[in-house]
Amino acid sequence: MVRYSLVMNVVMVVLSFVFAILTGSNAILLDGFFSLIGVAQVVAMGSIMRMQGRPDDSRHPFGFSSFVPLLNSIRGLTILAVCGFAGFQAVLSIINGGDHPDAGLGMIYGAAAALGCLFTGFVMARAARELGNPLLKVDSHSWLIDGFYSLVVSVAFGIAMIMQSLEWTTAARYVDPVLVLVLLLLAIPWPWGVMRDGVRELLLIGPPEGIRRQVIEQVNDVMSSLKPRDVICRILLSHDQLYVMCHVLVDGDAVISVTEIDRVRQAAMDCLGEHHTVSEFDLIITSNDEYGRLAD
User: Residues 140, 121: contact at Cβ < 8 Å?
Assistant: First the structure.
């Protein structure tokens, strides 16, 4: 699936750059830069997926999962940088009186690009569900959003053709730079969200409060058989990958067999696994109140 996504990104880069030259449209050129970024990201995604297939080693004792938020952070930051440059150029174009791209060819490009992006997005989304891979899921979202942008491009150039037929030539000259600004306003929330979530995961910030409470409640239910004085959980969530370090505080004279510890640990993993993929669940039994304490 990574190769398929790479091939389609290359096709979209060639298609958008060719039509950008033929039409003189900055909006189509912007779409081409998005696709070019997609090529680099898919190549990096393939490398990370190969690394994730390796066993943990001395250099990466906790595996390679941290590369996923790193890639997403770089992806979001790169797209935001391109958006900033494109927005600056669009404002300059408006100040200078707009431009006059070929609206007919632009509408053809928008329709063709939308069809290709949406089809690829649905294919990648199905593969992400079947394989349970968070990288494919992000890639499918990117394709579907690109398809929506291409539909907006097609509709905007259709409006420009109507303006030209009505001899509203002055207004038609502003369609392309205004379209760029509209696409940027629609585009910015997605890369910003991807970058924000990636940085949160790199900084080891815990999951949203709803997920945290759900995990704590499930773990408390499972650990109740140990008659604990308290249960403290450290929780991280990287996409659908859940990491939990659980300190169970018991009385100093408590007698708990290794078999019982293994049983409750597996029971907790099975319970949490109904909603998330549990990558790691560390269970620590202690009578020391200072261990595992979290600040309020």
Answer: yes
Q: Give the number of C-alpha atoms closer than 13 A to the C-alpha of residue 98, restricted to the C-beta side.
A: 13
| List of domains in the chain | 2-202 (1.20.1510.10), 209-286 (3.30.70.1350)
Give the tens place of pLDDT for each residue, 185-216. 877 887 788 788 888 877 878 888 888 898 88
Please tell me the distance from the alpha carbon of residue 125 to that of residue 128, in angstroms, as a whole number: 5
Residue 243: enclosing H or E segment and its boundaries? strand 241-249
Q: How far is CA 145 from the centre of its chain?
A: 12
| Residue 295 clears pLDDT 60, i.e. is over it | no
Beta-bridge partners for 286: 249
Percent of the chain whose pLDDT exceeds 90: 1
Residue 227: φ, ψ to 5°? 50, 55
- Looking at every residue in the chain, the average pLDDT score rounds to 80
pLDDT for position 296: 46
Residue pair 267/259 in contact by the 8 Å Cβ criterion: no
Is the pTM higher than 0.85? The answer reads no
Separation CA 277–CA 101 (nearest Å): 49
Alpha helices by DSSP H, listed for 96-174, are: 103-131, 134-165, 169-172
Cα separations in angstroms, 296 against 85, 225, 245, 293: 43, 26, 17, 9
C-alpha separations of 266 from 56, 111, 271, 280 in Å: 21, 52, 9, 11
Tokens 């000259």 belong to which residue? 173
Identify the CA nearest to 152 among candidates 17, 6, 30: 30
Backbone angles phi, psi at 277, to 5 degrees: -85, 115
Q: Is the pLDDT of residue 28 over 50?
A: yes
